[in-house]
Design goal:
8-stranded parallel barrel; 8 strands; 12 helices; binds phosphoenolpyruvate; 252 residues
């Protein structure tokens, strides 16, 4: 994985007021602000983006958003565009998280539009894919991922794919305390890399970072990161506490 810089990303979901987010960002900067072997990203709620950016801007920590709308601007009450979150300091945006697919009706088609909008706004998309428990039980894990990636990445060029990060998040492992076994995770990551090689080029597959997400914590990160096709983690619950998140960042 010579060319792939490991990445640890924190998804704060709908947690933390502005002052709580700023305080957590301050603690994280003190603990991990100069991390250099690992790229660190945090994705606070929209309301805390600018406040957190002020705290992390001089550090090595990147800012991400948890969602965006696909239009640049317009009469879309309650929505936020890529340009807006870029101007708040974001360089990453999480797209297609399973909670958005499950509770807010996101589809592979809307994911595709959002990826294009993110790229047009100079944001790096962190594209989430993953199977549900029933899909895994029905042995549909690979066909589900194939469909999510075929449709989600439709029309993207090689250059565009170079800016993207994929996050494999088995839905049954998110916030449940269940983690995919190393064997299960590695098999899917290998499948995703092969998909990228077939759909784009071998070099794209080699360069693209594929993160694992689903109940990652300090006690399981090292084992996951030791796998050849896991290049980092997208962390939900365990990213909310700066010390715990730092213990994941310092997994080596
Ligand atoms: C997530 O929100 O992307 C996630 C993986 O959550 P958790 O780490 O809490 O399972």
């Amino acid at each position: 994985m010579e060319n792939r810089r490991p990445m640890i990303a924190g998804n704060w979901k709908m947690y933390k007021t502005c002052s709580e987010a700023v305080a957590a960002a301050r603690s994280l900067v003190a603990l991990a602000g100069d991390a250099d072997g690992v790229e660190v990203m945090i994705a606070p709620p929209f309301t805390a983006l600018t406040g957190v950016f002020d705290v992390i801007r001089q550090s090595n920590i990147y800012l991400g958003a948890q969602n965006l709308h696909w239009e640049a601007e317009g009469a879309y009450t309650g929505e936020v565009s890529g340009q807006m979150i870029y101007s708040a300091g974001c360089r990453y945006v999480i797209i297609g998280h399973s909670e958005r697919r499950q509770y807010f009706g996101e589809t592979d088609e809307s994911v595709n539009k959002k990826i294009r909008a993110a790229l047009a706004a100079n944001l790096r998309p962190v594209i989430c894919v993953g199977e549900s428990e029933s899909e895994r039980e029905a042995e549909k894990t690979f066909s589900t991922l194939d469909k999510q990636m075929q449709k989600g990445l439709e029309g993207l060029s090689l250059d565009q794919m170079d800016s993207a990060v994929i996050a494999y998040e088995p839905v049954w492992a998110i916030g449940t305390g269940k983690t995919a076994t190393p064997g299960q995770a590695q098999a899917v990551h290998e499948f995703i890399r092969k998909f990228l090689a077939d759909r784009f080029e071998e070099t794209t597959a080699h360069k693209t970072r594929i993160l694992y997400g689903g109940s990652v914590k300090p006690s399981n990160i090292a084992e996951l990161m030791a796998l050849p096709d896991i290049d980092g983690a997208l962390v939900g619950g365990a990213s909310l506490d700066p010390e715990t998140f730092n213990n994941i960042i310092q997994y080596r």
